[in-house]
Each structure stands twice: as structure tokens, then as C-alpha cells.
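RECORD TYPE: inverse folding
INPUT: C-alpha cells
STRUCTURE:
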């Protein structure tokens, strides 16, 4: 099975530094095959015969903790799931050149209850949009994600789940690389 792991909070502002070449080696030592990394934010595409997602996540998180002495939550999706996320975009067709960094997807560790989204909606600016679909939150931040109150930390705290956010350019590239 082809998987994409999305690591939370590595190589951000000089924190939790992991070289992608080292991360690739770490995955390969766990018998994951055809390992490919994409940019420094902890996107790893790989094949595995293991079908139990919780087992894969446990392996990844434990090995990172063992090697680097810090915890990093891992969120796992398949190629098909990432493809479906693109197809289900509630904002229609996204022009990568114009809006590739203004449309984002927050990947959650589990499906939240609808009432949790209500806690987040209080922080949505008038120009922004937020849509929950399954285990993903689609964000539209026309003034830029850095200026939005919809940070990954806020979403994690309000949802009570691990989360990691990627812009639309990255989501598109992950599908392309995982084909």
C-alpha cells in the first residue's frame, strides 16, 4: 500500500530539526519501501505491507522519538485518500499560481465531532472560509495563513486532536509524488 505520512511540527523556526535524508533512512530501516520525502516539513511517501495504520504510526513516532529524543505526531493517509481530498475541495478548482498558498488542508488524527468545529468558527475572519469533511479541514485564507487566527495549534486545541496543515501546492505535489 502507498502511504503518505505527514509529520507535525518538524523544521519549523529551527525547532525539532530533522534532515530529510536522515528521515528517509529512518523509514527505510523500518522496511518501508520506495521512500520519497517532499520539502522540509516532514512529508514522507512510502510503500508498506503493513495494513494496520495505527501500527505504522506507532513505528514512525517511536523511531523518531528514539533517534531524536523528541515527540512528533504522525498523520497517515493513502494516495487514494489524498486524491479524494483534492476532488472534494469545497472551494472548486484552485488556481495553484494564485491561490496555492491561500487554500490549505489540515489533516486530523481522527474524525472530530461537529460541535468541535463550532468552537473554531468563532476565530474565522469575515474573508476566510472553513469546511470540515471527514478527517480534514479545508481552509481558505485570502490574506495568507500567517495572518489567520486558524493556526494549527488553535485547530488542535479546539478539536482535541493531533493535526498538521499543508497548503494546496503541497497537497497537489503529494498526490503527484505518490502516484
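DESIGNED SEQUENCE:
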Amino acid at each position: 500500500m502507498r502511504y503518505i505520512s505527514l509529520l507535525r511540527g518538524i523544521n519549523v523556526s529551527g525547532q525539532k530539526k530533522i534532515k530529510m535524508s536522515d528521515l528517509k533512512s529512518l523509514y527505510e530501516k523500518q522496511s518501508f519501501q520506495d521512500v520519497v520525502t517532499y520539502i522540509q516539513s516532514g512529508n514522507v511517501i512510502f510503500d508498506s505491507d503493513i495494513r494496520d495504520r495505527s501500527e505504522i504510526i506507532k513505528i514512525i513516532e517511536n523511531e523518531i522519538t528514539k533517534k531524536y529524543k523528541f515527540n512528533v505526531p504522525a498523520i497517515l493517509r493513502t494516495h487514494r485518500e489524498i486524491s479524494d481530498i483534492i476532488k472534494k475541495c469545497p472551494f472548486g478548482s484552485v488556481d495553484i499560481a494564485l491561490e496555492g498558498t491561500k487554500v490549505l488542508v489540515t489533516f486530523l488524527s481522527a474524525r472530530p465531532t461537529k460541535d468541535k468545529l463550532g468552537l473554531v468558527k468563532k476565530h474565522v475572519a469575515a474573508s476566510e472560509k472553513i469546511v470540515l469533511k471527514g478527517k480534514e479541514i479545508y481552509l481558505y485564507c485570502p490574506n495568507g495563513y500567517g495572518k489567520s487566527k486558524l493556526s494549527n495549534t488553535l485547530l488542535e486545541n479546539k478539536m482535541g486532536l493531533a493535526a498538521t496543515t499543508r497548503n494546496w501546492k503541497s497537497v497537489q505535489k503529494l498526490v503527484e509524488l505518490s502516484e
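NOTES: Residues 96 and 169 are 6 Å apart (CA to CA).
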